[in-house]
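Late entry, written up from scratch paper. The run itself happened at the end of the previous shift, but nothing got recorded in the book at the time, so transcribing now.
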Amino acid sequence: MRRLALPLSLLAAVVLTGAASGSVDRTPRDVVEQALRKVKPAPDYASAVRNPQSRVRVVVTLDDPPLAAATFARRLPGLSGPNRKLNLTSAFSRSYLGTLEAAQARALSSIREEIPEARVSRRYQVLVNGFALSLPYERLPALLGSEAVDRVYPSYTYRMSLNRGPSVVGATAFAGLTGTRGDGVKVAVVDDGVDHEHPFLDPTGFSYPAGFPKGTSGSTTPKVIVARGFAG
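Output as recorded:
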């Protein structure tokens, strides 16, 4: 029987370590050890137990390694640098992705024979080989015992929790004591994204200075006066 395994946040690191018969070491040992030190207990499904008809969403992984792990494993030592990017359009990638799609189709067919209520919402092939599956809670034991799957992971939902940063660093008290509110100061942020709708960036009471806004339309406000995306 399969066990309900690690949280979804560790999938990318941990699923590569599940050694199938005859498989190769799929990820550097230090990465694996770091991931195992961060293991957290599975979520409490007590509410679902009280209502067996409720549905749960889990992530199912299969035996074959995902594309990234398979590509890493086939590289010959000394012939390619460790930082070489994954090429999704190479002949090997296209062929291997086709193999994973066929294997996932067979696994889903097997699962649906026993659990017709199972629904797939998303598939994974690059960093993880598997899919997100929704099913009645009472049918979870059947999924855990299925020979078609390797592991079953709980799927977590993350919600934004407002950080009280200004009060933590004393900015509110400082402004009250000195009257300084940052007027005339411009702050540039180079990061993986700025949520211009976040309460910390509320534009109420502000107006664009001369020559602004600049950058991507729809991503600026009188508080965020310049924005540009560098994706790709």
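Confidence is low (pLDDT under 50) at residues 6-29, 38-42.
(Scratch paper discarded after transcription.)
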